[in-house]
Amino acid sequence: MKKHINEIINVSNEIYNKGLVSGKAGNISKRIKASTGDIVAITPTLKSLSDLKEEDIVLVDMDGNLLTKGKPSSEVGMHLEIYKKRDDVNAIVHTHSTYATGFAFSNKDLKRLEGFGEIKNPYVASIEYAKPGTVELAKNAGEGIKNEDVLILKNHGVICVSDDLNEAKLLAVFVEESAKTQFVTYMLNSVED
């Protein structure tokens, strides 16, 4: 278990240092499959991802029951809903990165760019706004990401999923860089010669 917890801490530090989250925003989880039932390790609520310690990571079962001390992220319901809908997903990275979240707050769709697998849809999927931490957001996210690896949460942020936590992190970085490129393109195209 310690290996999984340390992986979450390392990825939390990385996405904080890359500017994909700031303050106390964002959350990360990892599903650990066990013979007694799946366990989800998740970052805590109201704590910066920049300086987490082993005792900060909270373990819950698939029904959200606490298995350790601490208070899980307020988005634990959303993470659990995604895991229940997607047996192939074992890692979730939820960011509020500047450029991708800018698209989430705008009326522009974020194009899928080459570099992270086959492009099946021209744009990153999105769902309409629901208040963070609510059952409505959890259900909408679970439905919205059924066949996706990235989901834009309108007026909120981004979810990236994978079988592997490092891959989910790399996807979050790629989505932010894609958003940055598209933002710069929009700005350059709006300038008259």
Strand content: 15-25%
Distance between the termini: 58 Å
Taking all Cα atoms into account, the compactness measure Rg is 16 Å
Helix content: 25-40%
Total number of helical segments?
5
Question: What are the salient characteristics of this protein?
Answer:
193 residues; alpha+beta; seven-stranded mixed beta sheet; 5 helices
Structure report:
- The chain is an alpha+beta fold and 193 residues long.
- The protein is built from five helices and seven strands.
- It has helices at residues 2-17, 76-85, 98-104, 135-144, 165-190, and strands spanning 27-32, 39-42, 58-61, 91-95, 125-127, 150-153, 157-162.
- β1 and β2 form a beta hairpin.
- α1 packs parallel to α5 (165-190) and α2 (76-85) runs parallel beside α4.
How would you sum up this structure in a few lines?
With 193 residues, the protein is α+β, with helices and mostly antiparallel strands. Helix content is 36%, strand content 17%. A seven-stranded mixed β-sheet has the order 3-2-1-4-7-6-5, sandwiched between helices.
